[in-house]
Amino acid sequence: MSATTRVPQEERTRAMRQRLMDATVELLVEKGFSGTSTTLVSERAGVSRGAQLHHFPTKNDLVVAAVAHLTQIRGSDLEAAVDRLPEGPGRTEAVVQMLGEHFASPVFTAALELWVAARTDPALLQAVGPLEQRVGRETHRLTVELLGADESRPGVRELVQATLDLVRGLGLADTLGDDARRRRRILKEWARTLDAALEKGGTPQ
Amino acid sequence: MSATTRVPQEERTRAMRQRLMDATVELLVEKGFSGTSTTLVSERAGVSRGAQLHHFPTKNDLVVAAVAHLTQIRGSDLEAAVDRLPEGPGRTEAVVQMLGEHFASPVFTAALELWVAARTDPALLQAVGPLEQRVGRETHRLTVELLGADESRPGVRELVQATLDLVRGLGLADTLGDDARRRRRILKEWARTLDAALEKGGTPQ
């Protein structure tokens, strides 16, 4: 096989895998983990059953690959949002609102489906656990950087962690039909409190 | 049927329903929503298939009743914990640690399984949604009372809500194998920040 024919083939394969991953994430959001089947995924992706089974023989193979794909989407989503953040006084609120939106997105919903399924599925947990730890560490590092927080000062690390656990809790509430207005109000207040606690010139209540 | 024979029969029925509910909650924790079947529940509860089907003809009937049962357990769990709270300076931390433990208990895990299943199951959502709203309101009211928080002051309501969303986020992290030490450290710092924000004599960072 010559280089000119091999490259398009590799591209087609990559595009097909990408469609399968996208379809898996979409179906996790729409139908949940238990409602996501390999048949539905290949239909949605417009990929033949044979080709799908060749790349991902089982549902777990598919879902594990989708977790990695999801991790990548989450990372680039956040990095893209970072570029739109203002400098100066409104920055802390902009950072926590950005995190709040991120944890209320379909990408969070798909991840939630995987977490909950992994809780009672050891094989899935083995794939989801380490990835989730990596995403957690990276999100923490990014948040510290964006807030300009000094973690060598006592309590600062815990407040950054609390901020991330707060947006995770708000994301979970959102999946049950909570509304964005409530989330924004809470995060606005948390940003003021965080500013005061981090001594960045915010006004304590 | 005389009163003397009717009363024991009613008691037996109540005890049997109670066993079915307990078994459902246990199975939700152990095997998740999709791994919980009516057959497994009747086996676990030691109740005949016929009797179980008489009281709860479908899995959704069983799970919806278990949600109500769970709601009751969660309420009385919290009320019991309230009696053990100290008065004075350590109270805010004791309140948030109590909430943290409550949201990291098996009862939270079972509720999480129902929430996530309800997200993509309209019939289940119809039962879970209103109950969850009621529990949310009651937990909020209790938290305000325990913290002695004055919600007429700007920002206080949002900080109480943030506290509950935080413990929900910590509870979710806990189901993926997070540890209690991390949770306690975060909540200790949160309590200090909350005390400062609520002007209850805490020391701002």
Automatic annotation (TrEMBL), chains A, B:
Gene Ontology molecular function: DNA-binding transcription factor activity; transcription cis-regulatory region binding
DNA-binding region: 37-56
Domain of life: Bacteria
Domain HTH tetR-type: 14-74
Keywords from the UniProt entry: DNA-binding
Pfam families, per the entry: TetR_N
InterPro entries reported in the protein's UniProt record: Homeodomain-like_sf, HTH-type_TetR-like_transc_reg, HTH_TetR
Keyword Cell wall biogenesis/degradation part of the UniProt annotation: no
Record's protein name: TetR/AcrR family transcriptional regulator
Source organism: Nocardioides albidus
Lineage: Bacteria, Bacillati, Actinomycetota, Actinomycetes, Propionibacteriales
